Amino acid sequence: MRRVPIASPSSLPQDVIVSRVTRWLIVFALLATTLFGIANVAQRPVATYSIVAYDPNTGDLGVAVQSKFFGVGAVVPFAKAGVGAIATQSYANTLYGPQGLEMLSRGFSAEGAVHELTKNDKGRDVRQVGIVDARGQPAAFTGKECNSWAGHIIGDFYTVQGNILAGEIVVKRMEEAYLNARDTPGTELADWLLAAMLAGEAAGGDRRGRQSAAMLVARHKGGYAGQDDRYIDLRVDDNPQPLEELARLFDIHKQFYRAEHARRPKPGPLAADQVEPLENDFERLGWPFFLAAFVVIGFIFVFSAKNPPAPILGIVDGRLTPCPRRMNCVSSVALESEFRIEPLVFAGPMDEAKTLLMETTLKLPRTKLIEETGDYFRFECRSPVLGFVDDLELHFNEKDGRIHVRSGARCGYWDFRVNRRRVESLRAMLPASYTDLPVPKDAVVIPPAEEPEPGKKPESDKKDPSPEEKKSAKNE
C-alpha cells in the first residue's frame, strides 16, 4: 500500500493558512452569536404590568396582563377556582405558577406562598410576582434589581404590579380605574380587570411599547358546559394594539356566553384540602390546657404587675397588621368571619373625624392614647381585674371614607368576645353618620351619668308605692 504524505502546516502556502484560519474564526463567531442569542431570548425579561384580583361576591379569581413581549398569556397568568390567582413576571420564573397554586391548595396564605417561592430562588432579585388567595388575601413581591420603574400596590382583594413602566403613575391609575369599575352596577371581575389595564396603558404602560395581552378568570364550574373552572381565557399574542383587541374579544365572549355572564354565582367551595394548618403543636392541646394556662398567666400578671410588650403593629402595605390565628382579635381588614368586623365610615373632613374618634375612644373604660401618626391611632385598653392589655387601632382611609379598626389581645388564645364588644360599643357611641350598619346586639354601651337637677330626686331613688298607697290612689 502506498502512503500519501500529509503536508505539515509549515509546508502550506501562507495564503492557504490565512484562508483556513479565517473560515474557522467565522464559524466560531457564528456559533457564539447563536448561543448568545438563545441565552438572551431565554432570559429576556417579561417586562409588563398586571393585576390579580378576587370578587368576594362570586368567588371569581382573575389575572390581566399586557407587555412588549410575544405571547405574554403563556407565561404570566395562573388561576384556579377555590385556590388562588398568580401573576409571575420580570425574568419570569414560570414555576411560581404551579408551585404557588399547590401551596395555596395546601393552606398557605398568599403572603406565605410569596415568601416560600422567593426565599430560595437565586434569581429573586429580578423577579416580580403578585398573588391573591381564595379568601381574597393579596400579597406581592418586587425584586430590588427589577428594571425601573418597578413596584406594586396592594389593596382589598387585589394587587397591581409592573416593571419597566413609564412610572409609578401607571399602577396608581390602574388601581383607581379598578376601584371605580368595581363600584359600577352590572359589572363583573373581568370588566374591572380590563378597565385597570386600559387605564395603565393610558398612563404610559410598558415604556418599551406593547405587543401582547391576556386575561384569565377562574370560576367554579364556569368553563364550557360546567366541566372546568376556565371561565374566561383570552389571549392576544402579537398585535400593535393588544388591549383594544383583548377588549374586542371580551365583547364577543359576552355575546357568545351570554347566559354565563348574566349568572352571578355564589363563591364556590375552597380546595378540598385548603384548611389552614394550626401554627404549631401547642395549639393542638385543646381548651383544658389553655384554660389552665390562662389561670396561671393571670396569676403571674396579678403578682408581677407586668404585661407583655406591645407587639409589632401599625400600617403595612397600606393596611392594618393582620390578626394572629387566635380567637382574641377582630379586624375590619380580616376576611375570615371569626375575625371580621365591619369598619366605621365618615363623610366629612378627616381632621374632624380624627378628633371625634379620639375623644369618643378615650371615653371607653381604662383606655389611653399611645400613638398618633398621621392617619393612624393606637390605644391601650386594660381589663378591670387582671389588668390585661389590648391594643385598639384606627386607620383612616380618606380615599374610600372608611375607618378601619383592629382590636386584639396581647396574650391568651380566647378573649370571650371582649375585643368585638369593645369595637361595637365604640360604634354605638358615634353619630349615625359614622356607621352604615346596625349596631349588633352584643354591643355594650355605657352612657355618661347625668347629674340630677337641684332639689329633684333622681328617678333611680324613687320607690315603688306600697299596697296601701296603691289602694288609696285607686279609691281617689
Describe this structure in words.
The protein is α+β, with helices and mostly antiparallel strands. Helix content is 31%, strand content 21%. It contains 11 helices and 18 strands. It has helices at 14-42, 96-105, 110-119, 169-182, 189-202, 242-256, 258-262, 287-304, 350-361, 418-429, 467-475; strands at 48-54, 61-67, 77-80, 84-89, 128-133, 138-142, 151-155, 158-162, 212-218, 230-236, 315-316, 319-320, 329-331, 344-345, 367-373, 376-382, 389-397, 402-409. A 6-stranded antiparallel β-sheet has the order 7-8-1-2-9-10, with helices on one face. Helix 4 (169-182) runs antiparallel to helix 5 and helix 5 runs antiparallel to helix 6. It is elongated.
First-last Cα distance: 156 Å
In DSSP terms (H or I, runs of 4 or more residues), the helix count works out at 11
What's the shape? Answer: elongated
The helix/strand order is HEEEEHHEEEEHHEEHHHEEEEHEEEEHH
Number of strands: 18
How is the biggest beta sheet arranged? 6 strands, antiparallel
Q: Give the amount of beta strand, in percent.
A: 15-25%
Q: Structural class, from secondary structure content?
A: alpha+beta
Oligomerization: single chain
Runs with pLDDT <50, length 5+? 36-42, 272-284, 437-446
Radius of gyration over all CA atoms, rounded:
32 Å
Largest sheet, order of strands side by side?
A: 7-8-1-2-9-10
Average predicted confidence as pLDDT: 82
Helical proportion, percent range: 25-40%
